[in-house]
Design brief:
The complex is a heterodimer of chains A (301) and B (251). Chain A has a single domain (5-300), classed as ABC transporter involved in vitamin B12 uptake, BtuC, CATH 1.10.3470. By secondary structure, chain A is an all-alpha fold. Chain A has helices at 5-30, 38-54, 60-82, 87-107, 132-154, 157-167, 169-174, 179-205, 215-228, 234-249, 252-255, 257-271, 282-300; strands at residues 124-125, 128-129. With 251 residues, chain B is α/β, with parallel strands linked by helices. Chain B has 2 domains: 4-89 and 166-249, 3-Layer(aba) Sandwich (Rossmann fold); 90-146, no CATH class. In chain B, 38% of the residues lie in helices and 24% in strands. Chain B has 10 helices and 10 strands. In chain B, the strands form 2 sheets. Chain B has a 6-stranded mixed sheet, with helices on both faces. In chain B, helix 3 (95-107) crosses helix 4 and helix 3 (95-107) runs parallel beside helix 5. Classes of the chains: A mainly alpha (301), B alpha/beta (251). The complex binds adenosine-5'-triphosphate (ATP) and magnesium ion.
């Protein structure tokens, strides 16, 4: 195919960010639980796949599944912790988890320490190894999967239970909702999908190191979801696209990433807490008004 | 066998005995009122029955089984619907979603069922019927935060009713609502009772309690000081004293 390699790479990276933003959205958007350490789960997925494929000769596909399971398993532990601590402490706990996970990658020989892990194989299907375009297709499929999961959640009893517990835990309990169970499920599902993204990322990069999964990435992911609009599906997707393309266009952003994203988070909370495309946001209301204006003459005739 | 029974129920907050050795019996089909001065422990009694607080000691039996120690969601799904003194609807959800959340928890909460679609025409019809009952059907798509306090209280009742509870516990449902709304509320409570729902009611509005309740329990400093029919309670010297103070009672 004739798409230049650069665009394919940008497409893959953007797709991975979309998965990360949408998976965080299940935890933070739907269920309203703070998670400032999502990159850790991305990392657990990446390292799981890297180790299983390079050291145990496992096939990519099986290792990818294991990446999601390993990440989701650690995520469920975080979910259990979330039942014991207050919301503000939970935020700090998630930051802590990010640092702990990165330190383990960095200091334990099994994880290759600062050198990371290299030589991670590309997936192959019917004996043909994936090239760049193959990866783009794989990422696109994974994005579709995560969008599908999010949509399934959105209109389901499960999604309604998450939204209820986000709104008011005590009231949700009084309404018969097992808030503990649903919180743990949300953490497990969201982190498992981040692990899936990590597996794909590791294979695409062929080389990973602890620095790929640090706290600033967690903030970046959160920023994408918040800027776009937590609790919706279009919001995190748009946020991920905007914020992953921005550094491509404005190179300088990269150098001040944490500063820019941190500032952006604060700004969004001040002026547009529901996100650019969230419920009730200025843009969405404008759009709805526009649609309404267009429809009127039609319905009048 | 009473529908709800507490045996020697106590709840302590640090050094404060908020509920002290309360023995409550509520028979199926009754409307029972709980009255008492501010801080008497009425809401604490409610919260202990509903599992928000663990009893310091004592037992709670509902429909022939012990429920002390169970989590609130479990107790709710066993058939106790409740409202809060400071009403707590899900502010950013539509009225329909508010009601369906409880309905789903009760009837579609299983591992497989929870992935089912919530807003099907059939389920929305159920939500509409519940909202209709409390006079909110026309606002089904409105977000709860746009409702007045009085309407939020009604929404909470609809949400509790979505559990199809055998026992409905209302914590000061008439507080802060108009006289007319109060009359509607009384009609609603009677209607629910006639359909077979048992009602336990905390209320400061004496006119309402006296008119509505079959029996009244009086709490003061966490202790049951009197129980009986509205007529008994109105004449009970301890009650008059608790409410009006010693001098008036002695005069
Ligand atoms: N969570 C709590 N922690 C500590 N003390 C509490 C708590 N909840 C209630 N109390 C105390 O317990 C006592 C009983 O309070 P409760 O709210 O049950 O009274 P009430 O009868 O509902 O009063 P009101 O009519 O004002 O609603 C009060 O002294 C109150 O300050
Ligand atoms: Mg009270």
């Amino acid at each position: 195919m004739a798409i230049p390699a650069y665009y394919v790479t940008v497409g893959i990276v953007t797709g991975i960010y979309i998965i990360l933003a949408l998976s965080l959205n299940i935890i933070t958007g739907f269920a309203g639980q703070p998670n400032l350490g999502h990159a850790a789960f991305f990392g657990i997925g990446a390292y799981t796949l890297a180790i299983l494929t390079t050291q145990f000769g496992m096939s990519f596909w099986l290792a990818l599944l294991a990446a999601a399971v390993a990440s989701g398993a650690v995520g469920s532990i975080l979910g259990l912790i979330s039942l014991r601590v207050r919301e503000d402490f939970l935020a700090i706990t998630t930051i802590g988890i990010n640092f702990v996970v990165v330190s383990i990658f960095l200091y334990h020989p099994f994880f290759g320490q600062a050198f990371g892990i290299g030589g991670i194989p590309a997936p192959s299907l019917f004996g043909v190894a994936f090239g760049r375009t193959g990866f783009l297709a794989l990422v696109a499929a994974a994005v579709l999967l995560v969008v599908w999961v999010s949509r399934r959640i959105e209109g389901s009893w499960f999604g309604l239970a998450l939204e209820s517990l986000r709104e008011d835990e005590a009231a949700a309990e009084a309404a018969g909702i097992d808030t503990r169970r649903f919180k743990v499920i949300a953490f497990t599902l969201g982190t498992a999908l981040a692990g899936l993204a990590g597996g794909i990322y590791a294979s695409f990069m062929t080389f990973i190191s602890p620095g790929d999964f640090t706290f600033p990435l967690s903030i970046t992911i959160l920023c994408m979801a918040v800027v776009g609009g937590l609790g919706t599906i279009r919001g995190p997707v748009a946020g991920a696209v905007i914020l992953s393309l921005a550094p491509e266009i404005f190179r300088f952003v990269m150098d001040y990433r944490l500063l820019v994203y941190g500032g952006l988070l604060v700004l969004m909370m001040r002026v547009q807490p529901t996100g650019l495309l969230g419920r009730d946001s200025v843009l969405v209301r404008r759009w709805q008004r526009l649609i309404a204006h267009r429809r009127r003459p039609l319905s009048a005739s | 066998m009473p529908l709800l029974e507490t045996r020697g129920l106590c709840k302590q907050f640090g050094g404060l005995q908020a509920v002290k050795d309360v023995n409550l019996r509520v028979e199926a089909g009754e409307i029972v009122g709980i009255i008492g001065p501010n801080g008497a422990g009425k809401s604490t009694l409610f919260n202990t029955i509903c599992g928000v607080y663990r009893p310091s000691s004592g037992e709670i039996w509902f429909a022939g089984r012990p429920i002390h120690g169970l989590r609130p969601n479990r107790i709710a799904r066993l058939g106790i619907g409740r409202t809060f003194q400071a009403s707590r609807p899900f502010q950013q959800l539509s009225l329909e979603a508010n009601v369906l959340s409880a309905y789903g928890a009760r009837f579609h909460g299983g591992w497989r069922a929870m992935w089912g679609r919530a807003f099907t025409p059939q389920h929305r019809e159920r939500a509409r019927a519940l909202l209709e009952l409390v006079g909110l059907a026309e606002h089904a798509q409105t977000e709860a935060r746009h409702l007045s306090l009085g309407l939020q209280r009604r929404l909470e009742i609809a949400r509790a009713l979505a559990l199809e509870p055998r026992l409905l516990m209302l914590d000061e449902p008439a507080a802060g609502i108009s006289h007319e709304e109060g009359q509607q509320l009384m009609a609603l409570i009677r209607k629910l009772r006639d359909k077979g729902t048992t009602v336990l009611l905390i209320e400061h509005n004496m006119q309402m309690v006296m008119n509505l309740c079959d029996r009244i329990e009086v709490l003061n400093y966490g202790v049951q000081i009197a129980a009986g029919t509205p007529g008994d309670i109105a004449r009970h010297p301890d009650v008059i004293e608790a409410y009006l103070g010693k001098e008036v009672a002695g005069a």
